[in-house]
Amino acid sequence: MFKAGDAVVHPVRGAGVVKGVEEREWRGSSARYYRIGLLSQPGSSLMMPVETAKKIGLRRAIPQSRLRQVWSVLRADPSKLPPDHKERYQFLEDKLHAGKVMQVAEAVRDMAWRQQQEGRLTTRGKRMYVEGMTLLAGEIAATQSIGLADAEAQVREKLKESLFPETTT
């Protein structure tokens, strides 16, 4: 069970901080809920039933010690993406919504590489890239207790090291 102050990650809504556990009545029955402040939407809260949180995929944000692995993924060569756009988007969507930070990092890296190689992303590709960046930066921000913009800057810097290795030495 999580407690107030714990950094958590929802597989779709992203990173947040547990603000508290509340008892709520709904349709005549009482249940406990986590109130989670979402980092990507300051001022908003997500109410998550304690009973179903694990099943839905709510988990702790990665510890500081695993950030090195995230940076390694971002600096690694990209995965070979399917040439068919429908298959490619499904492949990337699956990674983004798997609820695992390393898969989100892989998807962000692969989309950054594709943008670099193709010169642009499609509208859907851009939307997925922004979603992935928000999910990844949110988890990094939660782990390091920093702002979302600072975490995004760190991700962009690691991607830059991979995309333009000669300019970062």
Task: Give descriptors for this structure.
169 residues; alpha+beta; Thrombin, subunit H; Methane Monooxygenase Hydroxylase, Chain G, domain 1; 2 domains; five-stranded antiparallel β-sheet; 6 helices; globular
Q: Could you explain the architecture of this structure?
A:
With 169 residues, the protein is α+β, with helices and mostly antiparallel strands. The chain folds into two domains: 7-60, Thrombin, subunit H (Beta Barrel); 64-167, Up-down Bundle (Methane Monooxygenase Hydroxylase, Chain G, domain 1), CATH 1.20.58. Helices cover 48% and strands 20% of the residues. The protein contains six helices and five strands, in the order ββββαβααααα. It has helices at residues 53-56, 67-75, 85-96, 101-118, 123-144, 148-163, and strands spanning 7-10, 14-26, 29-38, 45-49, 59-60.
Low-confidence stretches: none
Main-sheet strand order equals 4-3-2-1-5
CATH topology annotation of the largest domain: Methane Monooxygenase Hydroxylase, Chain G, domain 1
Give the termini distance in whole angstroms.
Answer: 44 Å
Helix content: 40-55%
Number of E strands: 5
Query: What's the Cα radius of gyration?
Result: 17 Å
CATH architecture of the largest domain: Up-down Bundle
The CATH class of the largest domain turns out to be Mainly Alpha
The secondary structure category is alpha+beta
Number of helices in the DSSP assignment: 6
Arithmetic mean of pLDDT: 92
Into how many domains do the coordinates divide?
2
Oligomer: single chain
Q: Largest sheet at a glance?
A: 5 strands, antiparallel
What does the overall shape look like? globular
Strand content: 15-25%
Kindly report the name of the CATH homologous superfamily of the largest domain.
CarD-like, C-terminal domain
Write down the secondary-structure element order.
Answer: EEEEHEHHHHH
